Amino acid sequence: MRRLILIAALAAVLVLPESAAADEVDPGLLWMDGRLSDLTEGSVVPEPSYSAQDTSPVQRAEQNGSFIVTYKGAFPEDAKTAFQYALDTWSRYLDVTVPIRVEANWKVLGAGKLGTAGPTKLLSGFPGAPSGHWYPIALANQIAGTDLDAKSVDITSNFASTQKSFYFGTDGRTPRGKFDFVSVVMHEIGHGLGLTGTADVVGTNGTIGSPPKYTASAIYDVFVVNSNAKPLFGGFKTKTPELKQALTSGGLFWYGANGVAATPGTAPRLFAPTTWSDSSVYHLDEETFAAGSADSLMSPMLDDEESQHRVGPVIRGILSDIGWTLAPVAPAYLYFLDVPAGTQPGELLLTQPRVAVLNGRGYTVAEDNETVITLSLVGTGGDAALSCDGGLVKTAKEGLAKYTGCRIEGTGMGLRVVAWAEGLTSAESPPFVVIRRGNFRGLTAGVSRDE
Ligand SMILES: [Zn+2]
Asked: Per-residue pLDDT tens for 151-201?
């Protein structure tokens, strides 16, 4: 088994917005991972609100999902397809009103790294800010209801151009020896949305919070506690060995209410190896959230063959705790992905029905393995009757019910196949006819002609 690292190594610039009073928040710049040598001088002041030329990308985002991506470098076409699939999948989970701009770079990364990503900025003091802490710009934009820095992308992400073992398929059937690119992209976008912060270890000291006063921190940081439920930010002095000890204790947990609610009886364990690493704090614990578990997306390692295309309940809880509004995931209605269509009496339907369980935003509820779906045939005239292999009642599997062997005995006009489930809005196919072959002649000719 091969195992490679997914990290949030990108530095984030803390930016003081124009609207914030300078003495209320800690201005200045902060880079994660302590790579201060990368620092560029000066802070950028964002210009709030849309300009007219933003209309087009906004419309595009509304049509295509919540993200607008810009590719840089020699991004392979099949990698772009997988990338868009990952963004579309994330769109299912988030209630996004201001499109999220993502820059995707195809470039050389360090050995063993598949991808890195982070917010381009953390903002504080913006309109509607829920606290004095720093928010990733993609989130700050949603809270403010406007693009706080229209000139800037919100998330920068990098993917290993020299990696020969990426699997670019979108079906999650990653072959042995390959690394699922969709999973990598979804993971990195998770960092850009907010699984990131300021905690670091420098020499013998741990640090957390934004310099110079350390009275505020990245919003994620304020929910991180040790095994005694003592918060790392506020509960420990920054730049101390005690904080380093906590950061490398092996016992860090998420203490936000929504994240905790997703792990009844305990709190979500964060990745906190006894040797500080780039991946510490801003991932879920690798062992607790191992490959195959619902929240493995945000564990720090990806095995070959592993794929995770879902945002699990703990990750959704964390996003909710830091301020994201999530899309409703409850099933709301049924939809024919493959629309049943007519045929000859007794022969298979031309299209076999495939029914999706959708949430209120029109996305398949991939977690749904419960909804019981019943097909029926309605129509006028004739003696048509529908049957399918295994019957007309199916329980959704991962939000889908796929019927096979469906056929209609007898004939009928204006027939519709209806998919029904208790409490959900039904789906109904367009009308079709089932009629004996010989009778098609004369029916298809709309105009009589002399021959
Ligand atoms: Zn990561």
From this structure: 889 999 999 999 899 999 999 999 999 999 999 999 999 999 999 999 999
Q: Taking the domains of the chain in order of start, what are their residue ranges?
A: 3-322, 331-440
Please calculate the CA angle 65-67-68 and round it to the nearest 5 degrees. Answer: 115
* Centroid of ligand 1 to alpha carbon of 433 (angstroms): 54
With b for 16 or more beta-carbon neighbours within 10 A and e for fewer, the 51-87 pattern comes to eeeeeeeeeebeeebbbbbebeeebeeebeebbbbbb
Residue pair 220/194 in contact by the 8 Å Cβ criterion: yes
Ligand 1 geometric centre to CA of 282 (Å): 7
Residues with CB under 5 A from ligand 1 (ion): 6-8
Instruction: Read off the pTM.
Output: 0.72
CA distance 446 to 194: 61
Which uninterrupted H or E stretch holds 252? strand 252-254
**Token pair 């009886």 is at which residue?**
265
For the segment 37-50, what is each residue's pLDDT rounded down to a tens digit? Answer: 222 222 222 332 33
pLDDT at 384: 87
CA distance 434 to 382: 9
Kind of pairing between the strands at 393-395 and 372-380: antiparallel
Scan for tokens 């009778």, then name that residue. 439
If phi > 0 it is left, if psi is from -120 to 50 it is alpha, else beta; for residue 323 that is left
What is the Rg, in whole angstroms, of the alpha carbon atoms belonging to the chain? 26
- CATH code: domain 331-440 is 2.60.40.10
Separation of CA 7 and ligand 1 centre (Å): 3
Q: What's the token pair of residue 192?
A: 């850009």
Strand order in the sheet with 400-402: 331-338, 354-359, 400-402
